[in-house]
Amino acid sequence: MWERFGFYTMFSLFVLYATQDIGLDDADAALLYGTFGSFVYLTSLPGGWIADRLLGFRRAIGLGAVVMCGAYISLFFATPATITVSLGVLVVGNGLFKPNVGSLLGTFYGEGDPRRESGSTIF
Hints:
This protein is 83% helix and 0% strand. By secondary structure, the chain is mainly alpha-helical. It is elongated, with a radius of gyration of 16 Å. It starts with a helix and ends with a helix.
């Protein structure tokens, strides 16, 4: 839940933060916002592959959480020169975290378990 809260809070306030506090102009802030949004969802593919082949779900989720925490802290101190790096780190952390939480949930229920659908709905 904290990951979604952080993501949607940051995503909803990003253009305002980038223009008012960082000093980007509206066009650059909007472009960065759109690029960030697309990469957050695109990195789910390599994040899932890394979890499947290299780290496992739990390690990928843990690593993604730590990376995202660092990225949110670095966004707090961002400057026009460092904001893209902070967002890039956040994208990597989200790519490791986001796709693997749902996959880990699927391992809690066996095939044909009637609770599986309810668990996904609650998630």
